[in-house]
Design goal:
338 residues, alpha+beta, Uridine Diphospho-n-acetylenolpyruvylglucosamine Reductase, domain 2, Uridine Diphospho-n-acetylenolpyruvylglucosamine Reductase, domain 3, Uridine Diphospho-n-acetylenolpyruvylglucosamine Reductase, domain 1, four-stranded mixed β-sheet, 7 helices, binds flavin-adenine dinucleotide
Length: 338
């Protein structure tokens, strides 16, 4: 009830003072795992609107939370006390210039992949079957194995949370495994547009590689609603295999389930809550640690009510929730099934 009132107040404030349309939406509809409470959502269609929204939030001390395709975000069950910002309109534009694709951060990665194929450009095939948008994929350096989209970025336009627009060149961007190391002063910045450097090839070859990547994904990953891999692979190891070897495939908590096809995927099997996913993730993390003394770090972003990123290592239990199951208690080792 309280959150609904707070959201209504924020929505009215944004409409009256910022004079921009917004709506209160269920975050579960904006996430591939279908989890999350209500939030105020603003869709900006061009640079002018984006600057206006960023500057207004900076001046009023309001929190902005940038949402892409929601395929890597575990939203809180109670909703967000931050304005969810979605890049729409002009930010979905994509075009080709020689061997470069220029893409708005709001464009679907599937669209740039399609364009690369039609233009016989190679380099993006690893995106086949990967959901989400360009901004989210660059920010998370999404990809396969040790490679990711951010490594192909030649130029990147950003707006900081203080409203400063800037353009970074390749040598100023430091992609690391499933993340982008931005300088401290640029943390939280919003990616507006990127230029990706590809290589010329033949359309048939690109199509073949895309089909291979798609098949690989189809054969190894579950189809139920998820956020992809929950944990990053520790150096030289597979997080999925480590979790599997603890006998956790098929383990459930509430409505969430560790996939029996790929143990690094948690599926929303039956109206799962964020707290169910959290409990299972924590179970996997603690059991892998107990068995191998290897710490698993989440690849997914877990947000609290203020859209602050939570770390599984910070606290054992979902804020405000008591453990419902003894087996989910950190530090308790379940007898492995193997
Ligand atoms: C079935 C499935 C398979 C997957 N397979 C893979 C895989 O093989 N490899 C892989 O790497 N990932 C994989 N993922 C995870 C996910 O698809 C990628 O991480 C994806 O690139 C996230 O993009 P998004 O737009 O959905 O980002 P979101 O989930 O919306 O956001 C992720 C983060 O990026 C930030 N963000 C989003 N847009 C911007 C922006 N414009 N500027 C600044 N920050 C922004 C958000 O604030 C958030 O912190 C998979 C997910 C699913 C559901």
């Amino acid at each position: 009830m309280l959150i609904n009132e707070a959201l209504k107040l924020t929505s009215d404030l944004l409409r009256q003072k910022l004079k921009m349309e917004n709506s209160i939406e269920a975050l579960s509809d904006l996430s591939t795992i279908g989890i999350g409470g209500p939030a105020v959502i603003i869709r900006v269609k061009n640079e002018a609107q984006l600057s206006q929204v960023v500057n207004f939030h900076a001046q009023e001390g309001l929190k902005l939370a940038i949402i892409g395709g929601g395929s890597n975000l575990l939203f809180p069950d109670d909703g967000l006390l931050a304005t969810g910002l979605i890049l729409d309109g002009d930010f979905k534009r994509i075009s080709v210039r020689n061997n470069y694709i220029e893409a708005g951060a709001g464009a679907a990665t599937a669209k740039i992949l399609e364009l690369s194929q039609s233009q016989a450009l190679t380099g993006l095939e690893f995106l086949a079957g990967l959901p989400g948008r360009v901004g989210g994929a660059v920010m998370g350096n999404a990809g396969a194995k040790n490679h990711g989209l951010a490594e192909l970025v030649e130029e990147m336009e950003l707006i900081t949370l203080q409203g400063e627009n800037l353009c970074l060149k390749r040598e100023e961007i430091y992609p690391v495994y499933r993340s982008l190391n931005l300088p401290e002063s640029l943390r939280g910045s919003i990616i507006k547009k990127v230029v990706l450097a590809l290589r010329p090839s033949e359309a048939d070859l690109v199509a073949k590689k895309i089909a291979q990547e798609r098949k690989k994904r189809h054969d190894s990953q579950p189809s139920g609603p998820s956020l992809g891999c929950v944990f990053k692979n520790p150096p030289g190891k597979s997080a999925g295999q480590l979790i599997d070897s603890c006998g956790l495939k098929g383990e459930t908590f509430g409505g969430a389930e560790i996939s029996d096809k790929h143990a690094n995927f948690i599926i929303n099997a039956k109206m799962a809550k964020a707290s169910d996913v959290w409990m299972l993730a924590n179970l996997a993390r603690s059991q892998v640690y107990q068995k191998y003394q290897i710490e698993l770090f989440p690849e997914i972003k877990i947000w609290d009510l203020k859209a602050q990123e939570l770390s599984l290592t910070q606290i054992d239990y979902w804020p405000g929730q008591e453990p419902k199951s003894q087996k989910a208690k950190r530090g308790q080792v379940k007898t492995p099934k193997i």
